[in-house]
Amino acid sequence: MNPLPRPLAELGLSLTRRRFFERGSHLLGGLSLAALAGEEAARGESAAVAGADGVARVPGAIGPHFAPKAKHVIYLHMVGGPPQMDLYDYKPVMNDWYDKDLPESVRNGQRLTTMTSGQKRFPIAPSKFTFARHGQSGMWVTELLPHTASMVDQMCFIRTMHTEAINHEPAITYMQTGNQLHGRPCLGAWTAYGLGSLNQDLPTFVVLVAKPTNTEQVQAIGARLWSSGYLPGEYSGVSFRSAGDPILYINNPAGVPAAVRRTTLDGLAALNQRTLEQLGDPETRTRIAQYEMAFRMQTSVPDLANLATEPESTFALYGEEAKKPGTFANTVLMARRLVERGTRFVQVYLNNWDTHANVAVRLPMQCKDIDQACHGLVQDLKSRGLLDSTLIIWGGEFGRTVYSQGGLSRENYGRDHHPRCFTMWMAGGGARGGQIYGETDDFSYNIVKDPVHIRDFHATVLHLLGFDHERFTHRHLGLDFKLTGVEPARVIPELMA
User: Fold this and answer.
1) What is the DSSP string of 213-262?
2) pTM of the model
3) CATH at 438
4) Torsion from C-alpha of 141, 142, 145, 148, nearest 10 degrees
5) Label partner for 205 (CA 20 to 30 A): which of 97, 187, 404, 424?
6) Which domain holds residue 127?
7) Exposed/middle/buried for 253, CB within 10 Å: 0-12, 13-18, 19+?
8) Interval 406-447: pLDDT, tens
9) Count of domains for the chain
């Protein structure tokens, strides 16, 4: 074999030396740990081992800074921006403002999207839906979410989320990655990087995209949102399909037995390992890991997707829609099954919340998609003893305006994007049940008490996962990058139990 060109040889040596000096101090301990964990690895599990500080860590993971309250996350992202004043942020005073112009003292020069910037008027559109108070917390909830309303004391509501982004692409990227620009790791990738895998036969981070009943106005959803960015590639989300086989080509072609596939992969692994030793490219290591994961998933994924093992009581809990692949109910049931099998982070996307028009028809359909399913997910996790260790997050990338976009009537209206305040909720995983945090003005337009920026939200979620967001970093291009960025961010203790 011809020797490598001198520059490539020097690159390989340089990367090898750097890797040795960065990680060599832990090498002997890591070898011993690998030997001790051999039995668990043979079963396809990663054994958690207590460190000197008593915090359990998974071999190969960064490990938490302190004992986490949440060991798993199910993040339900409502793509498009749910209208907070039609769901959770009740504003009865607006009934007296019907069709009156939004006061300039309330708007206060806020920039608008191109969808409404040309309007001559900004007429107030009070919610057409009825609200009632529920639980000991007295949380106001729309009539469209009766199942959700019955569990408000298990939920932690944030009414004062806010962001600088006013359009979908930067806003959803901001919410997922902590930055409006593409290329940064998302929250799921950071979680996988920090906590590691609990089941070597399934991905640590899985993405599911549900199909809404109504598809009037959907937004683009792509792999940029579950990228690992500058983290190693193996921490990217693995997208499962909503219909058919969850993973394409999960089964071997006709005439190719498992033994032949195993021999093929062994040969590929040997070639890739040789390339890794020569060049030290971390993407080659990622490729080796992905091939091995794909082989193991040929057994684990069909079992995961087989809902025939679920009793009828499960579908009574989530609703009959849970039997239909691709529905939101089916997707959150799959999320529970993933968490049950050790997946750390499950990201679920549900589209069509971009209600620029026809709120009267679209919003009831959206709420019907999620209401019983979300309630079922919380109660199912609780009955299985998983709710305390699983953090459920629900929310969009921004809120909606109290003024109408386009035509306005008592029975129908549209709402534009609104970044100044919107509502999210959490449940389980150390979130404080029955909490209602933050207040907005009578127009649900500005925050009057306890604002929560996206950075604050991310810092709080990382804290629930056992990480100090200031110290949870990754060295890239000579800098220590973190999810919460360089601007101030704070953990909000009132959101935690």
Assistant:
1) S--SS-----GGGG--TTS-GGGS-EEEPSSSSSSTT-SPPTT--HHHHH
2) 0.85
3) 3.40.720
4) 0
5) 424
6) 61-250+311-495
7) exposed
8) 999 999 999 999 999 999 999 999 999 999 999 999 999 999
9) 1
